[in-house]
Design a protein that fits this description.
By secondary structure, the protein is an alpha+beta fold. The structure holds beta-D-glucopyranose.
């Protein structure tokens, strides 16, 4: 067994790569801007270019590169008419700015790249990649917002909020000849599903997604060349409220007070003879609300009546003479129409292994064994005219019935009315639910329920897995699973707090604590960058720099909170560290500065008086009930700490962007705040001046570097005291939890961190696992087998914040982290613990796959590290403090293996 007192005798086996000569393989994995591969409808006419070097014996790094960009494939590589970077001596292989001719809407662009290796030998040219721009300006749109006035039906739903009947819209048109190419540009106020000649044109879900619709609506581009033919054609759109016109937007004026949904689409066709034809949404479209989807709400569910299905409504053969005329609205300049800058939501995973938990003639309950987000697919026998009711819940009550109190006002129920006897198949289209259990009632009672009746279609924004983590410990692996499911379940177009109750909102505090862990696990550069644009747009409505609680801001209450609004500084910083993309810092620098200005405007002697949710949901709060949710670290403390931290980060960002004056200015500001902070909240002995000592008070002060060095050392001791007093349990809420591992790690208290992490009792990470959790919970005590559910209805079983420990699992348990932004330099530094015999993590860095994997067998510690080309790494072998020289290795690309004999002290 390993203890601190052990020492290591070191024997190292390096698998070094030889620098043999030969052909240099071409660069691979070419991407555009935030990781796009050959996109169409691309949003950015000034993209950046990235590539990876091949894994090859003769490539360790890049000495130079050349990018060529042309308007046609045939011009490459020798006649690049848009841009030739020429040979640039540079090791940079990520995020190279395009510096060629101006690009415009619809333009098709082709590019390729080659590099010179460390010996200055040129590689072959990469394969030719391409992109095509979307419609970049409102003036590109000839189409009109089109739809039926559904507001006038005055249908009232939950809490008397106006509901809109989903509408079916269509337009038939003739094409005189065959087609060479066709693009469909489309978006909606609401959410849409579009068909051409009876075919669904994509598997996208709930498009166009959620932005501050009063500022910007995202547009989609589809290549529909193969769906059109000469002769009669038809375009058809199903349209529902979604976020724009649903009660999730709470009817705020900014969202046009529940205005009726509308579609905007422009189908641009090039015919064989070279002629072009454009079909636009306008008043010539026809529409009906007498279709099968009767009602649809993100919170409340969907109602589907198969008796009202309209055969062939989406084909050219359909007669729509009896349908209503549509109403139109012209495209206004004030709301920008911009191509979607991240991926759409899709069905990403299917849970097929349902289990029947209980069944009576009336109702059958299925367990999908994983708390998830999306919709069910039901395949169920029914009797004509009967209504199938589909209910959801995340967990069951002790009597086997559904626990739905935590959905609060979200009805989250789907209905299906059968038009005939027999097996029906149904998947709701315009809603989503957070659930693990499904209850069906209203099926054909003569048939014995079967577990294949339901499947769970997991939906979230489409992004790839970026990293993996696993270990020899079952509960640690379950924690990793719960973290990644918590992420999948809360990244549906925007980062949400929860996916099931009547919130599902872009809470900024939750997002800022989870973003590093999210980026370890998933490729999310574009996702977070897109959300930050919404944040900038929202902040621009507040002259004083306020960043509201949630983005998009449907609360509209003119309030901000410390630890929440700071997402505007912290998330760009996290993205930069994960990717090395400076653009994200440039784009968000002004926003970050204004946010610090907001604190300044609300401060007296550097102590801000703004609202704070504080260390949200800290365990064992002194006060009970809802006020207890805020924890015991006071608002003024949290405000001042975050004010300092944001100022400090702004100074660091300014340094990276070469803004020397700002770097100095914000550094001074940070120091002034830190001084005021220490004077107000700490005594000379590093003790936090408050009767109620909290772990988070010490964690914030230490991690944000707010104390003089001597005070800090003393404060660290007091922190350890608070942990000891909690019997080595964590005592932290949303803000303290993510930094607990980092602070203890910096203090060298690794074993203590492991002790806290491996605690089985409340409050701890494994506690929820012991109670059956398959996702991260909102509260440390959302449920217990002994006492049941937390009595508060604010009790989501799918909230990602406490999953922020995932970052430390990658960085220190497996031992893989970025030492320089974007992994240009990597750190391999695992800290094994006696509870583990192995751990491993891998990450798809911008340079390629990096990994760290270790195991202990017969007292020998084996480490294997993979370092991708064009990076270097520091490899720290455990117990480096014993013998610094032999324990830290500086390496370049390659695969390295180490064996360290563990010997016990006598
Ligand atoms: C949300 C959070 C959020 C919090 C703010 C809750 O209702 O679900 O996760 O950060 O409010 O205090």
């Amino acid at each position: 067994m390993m203890r601190k007192s052990l020492f290591f005798s070191l024997s190292v086996f390096l698998v070094m790569l030889s620098c043999s000569q030969g052909n240099i393989q071409k660069p691979k994995e070419l991407t555009l801007s935030e990781g796009f591969k050959n996109p169409i409808g691309f949003y950015n006419p000034k993209p950046t270019f990235s590539w990876q070097l091949p894994i090859s014996e003769n490539v360790t790094s890049q000495a130079a590169y050349q990018i060529v960009v042309a308007s046609s494939k045939d011009l490459l590589p020798d006649n690049a008419d848009l841009w030739d970077s020429e040979k640039q001596k540079s090791a940079q292989s990520t995020f190279i700015n395009y510096k060629g001719k101006a690009l415009k809407s619809r333009q098709k662009v082709f590019w390729q790249v080659r590099f010179w290796n460390q010996d200055n030998n040129a590689s072959a040219w990469s394969s030719v990649n391409h992109f095509e721009l979307g419609l970049l300006n409102n003036s590109d749109w000839k189409a009109k917002w089109t739809g039926l006035d559904t507001a006038k039906d005055s249908i009232k739903g939950v809490r008397k909020f106006l509901m809109h009947r989903p509408q079916y819209l269509r337009k038939a048109f003739d094409l005189p000849s065959e087609i060479t190419s066709a693009r469909l540009y489309i978006t909606s106020k609401g959410v849409f599903d579009v068909h051409l000649n009876g075919k669904d044109i994509s598997d996208d879900v709930l498009t166009p997604g959620w932005t501050p619709y009063n500022k910007r609506i995202e547009t989609l581009t589809y290549d529909v060349t193969d769906l059109l033919a000469s002769g009669k054609n038809a375009i058809a759109v199903a349209l529902a409220s979604g976020w724009h016109s649903g009660r999730i937007s709470r009817g705020k004026a900014v969202y046009e007070n529940f205005a009726s949904p509308k579609v905007l689409c422009q189908l641009e066709i090039t015919l064989k003879d070279g002629a072009t034809k454009t079909i636009i949404s306008d008043e010539t479209w026809k529409g009906t609300t007498n279709g099968p989807i009767r009602l649809a709400s993100l919170y409340d569910g969907e109602e589907y009546d198969a008796n009202l299905e309209i055969p062939n409504w989406n084909t050219a053969n359909f007669k729509d003479a009896s349908w209503k005329n549509t109403e139109i609205e012209v495209v206004a300049d004030s709301v920008k129409l911009e191509p979607k800058r991240h991926t759409t939501v899709k069905e990403m995973v299917v849970l097929e292994d349902a289990e029947i938990v209980s069944a009576t003639e009336k109702a059958v309950v299925f367990n999908l064994k994983q708390n998830m987000v999306g919709v069910p697919k039901v395949t169920v026998p029914m009797k004509k005219g009967d209504t199938l009711t589909i209910r959801f819940s995340e967990m069951l009550l002790s009597d086997g019935t559904f626990y739905t109190k935590n959905y609060r006002s979200a009805k989250s129920t789907d209905y299906y009315i059968a038009a005939k006897d027999g097996v029906i198949e149904y998947t709701p289209k315009f809603t989503f639910h957070g659930f693990q259990f499904i209850e069906l009632s209203g099926f054909d009672a003569a048939v014995k329920p079967n577990s294949t009746w339901v499947k769970g279609l997991v939906q979230h924004s489409e992004f790839d897995v970026n990293g993996t983590f696993s270990s020899s410990h079952e509960k640690l692996n379950q924690l990793q699973s719960n973290i990644t499911w918590g992420l999948r379940d809360n990244l549906l177009d925007i980062p949400t707090d929860c996916p099931q109750r009547d919130e599902r909102l872009g809470w900024t505090g939750d997002a800022q604590v989870i973003s590093p862990t999210a980026m370890y696990n998933f490729k999310m550069h574009a996702f977070w960058s897109a959300w930050l644009q919404s944040m900038r747009e929202t902040q621009s409505e507040h002259e004083n720099g306020l960043v509201p609680f949630i983005i998009p801001d449907v609360l509209q209450n003119n309030r901000a909170s410390s630890g929440w609004g700071d997402a505007c500084v912290i998330v760009p910083w996290d993205i930069y560290n994960a990717t090395g993309d400076k653009r994200v810092l440039e784009e968000n620098f002004e926003m970050a500065k204004k946010w610090v200005g907001y604190y300044q405007s609300k401060s007296k002697n550097y102590i801000p008086t703004i609202h704070s949710f504080r260390d949200w949901l800290q365990p064992y709060p002194t006060k009970g009930g809802k006020m207890g949710n805020r924890g015991d670290t006071p608002g003024s403390f949290v405000n001042t700490a975050y004010f300092a931290h944001s100022a400090h980060l702004v100074s660091k960002i300014a340094g990276i962007l070469g803004k020397v004056d700002d770097e100095k200015k914000y550094k001074n500001l940070y120091k002034e705040i830190a001084l005021a902070f220490e004077n107000k909240f700490f005594d000379k002995n590093g003790k936090y001046q408050n009767k109620k000592q909290t772990q988070t008070a010490y964690l914030l002060a230490i991690y944000f570097d707010l104390l003089q060095p001597e005070t800090k050392v003393k404060a660290q001791k007091h922190l350890l005291e608070t942990i000891k007093n909690a019997d080595y349990h964590l005592g932290t809420g949303f803000l303290g939890t993510p930094i607990l591992p980092k602070v203890l790690d910096d203090m060298g208290e690794i074993e203590l961190m492991y002790k806290i992490l491996f605690k089985e009792t409340y409050p701890s990470w494994f506690y929820s696992i012991n109670q059956g959790a398959t996702t991260m919970w909102e509260r440390w005590n959302s449920f217990s087998k002994a006492d049941g559910y937390n009595p508060q209805s604010m009790n989501s079983l799918n909230h990602y914040a406490y999953g922020a420990v995932g970052q430390w699992m990658y960085e220190r348990i497996a031992g893989l982290s970025a030492l320089e932004p974007g992994y240009k330099k990597i750190r391999i530094a695992p800290v094994p613990s006696k509870q583990l015999t192995s751990a491993e993590a891998s990450i798809n860095t911008p340079y390629g796959k990096a990994s760290s994997s270790w195991k202990i067998e017969n007292d020998i510690f084996y480490l294997e590290a993979i370092i991708p080309p064009n990076t270097t790494a520091e490899i720290h072998l455990p117990n480096a403090s014993k013998d610094k020289n032999s324990a830290v290795k500086m390496v370049s690309a390659g695969t390295y293996k180490f064996e360290i004999k563990l010997e016990f002290d006598k």
